[in-house]
Amino acid sequence: MITRIDHITIGVADLQQGVAQYRKLGFNVLPGGVHAGRGTHNAVAWNGEEYIELLAIRDVAEYRAASASGGEFEKFIAAGGGIRSIALASDDLAADVAGMRSRGIDVGDPVEGSRRTPEGQELRWTLAMLGSSHALPIFFIQHLTPLAQRRPAAASAHPNAVTGLERAYIVVENAEDAAANCAKILGMETPKLQKGTVIMSNMAIFQLGPTGLGIVTPYADGPAASALHKRGPGAFQALYRTTSMGAAARWMAAQGLPPLERGVRNTGEHAMLATPTEACGAYIGFVGPE
Q1: Do residues 43 and 144 share a domain?
Q2: Residue 272's CB: how many other CB atoms inside 10 A?
Q3: pLDDT digits (tens, 9 = 90+) for 129-157
Q4: How far is 8 from 51, CA to CA, in rounded Å?
Q5: Does residue 214 contact residue 204 with C-beta atoms inside 8 Å?
Q6: Residue 238: which of 174, 169, 137 has the closest Cα?
Q7: Same domain, yes or no, for 180 and 250?
């Protein structure tokens, strides 16, 4: 079954610059490794069982030779980067793929992948991708390497006091239709739309374990409308829960970042939001007590 959001992938033009920027935002970003034969490399910021992946092209020629999508990731980076995809964790990917197919979903067979860490450890997984008829930027992953081996000892607390991902959001033209499609993919009921007052959108939230996947359509100007206008439908924001908004704000100020935009959620909680300028093409939100 699908258990949670496993990670979000943020495409950046230069990995070291991306790492530096996310450290300014208060994330403890660690070297990830090289994707052999794919021309890419990454860095990772861990939050419990899930993580942020910063992904960049390491070798353009190797990437182009390996790309089965016509260089879409390269084009995405050239357009400014940001959240490229949202990975959903499965504890039995073969069974989940079979279930999706039984519901008429076009999804590929699970295929193996790997990367090698700077310490030389090979991390392995299987993943399955939706067919081209499905526009949602999600895919499915089952890790073959145990979490204790994947999560490095240096993955300590973040200076921004973030404890984990609360939600990741995908903006679309029609949230009702896209949510119905997502429900069919996931084998879940379609959530009722609710009003998001920070992203100024009507949103359907799929609760996947401790994490939420939001399908949203803007009702007024705001982050979602801006993302939809500039980039079209796609993943655009991740919201992280912190134990101290004040600690996060103080850390960012000490790194020379301007104060983040503030807003009030439909839950009454206060949130602050890093814009694409501050977060390498993504919106990164923080919510929690002062």
Answers
A1: yes
A2: 20
A3: 999 888 899 999 999 999 999 998 888 89
A4: 7
A5: yes
A6: 169
A7: yes
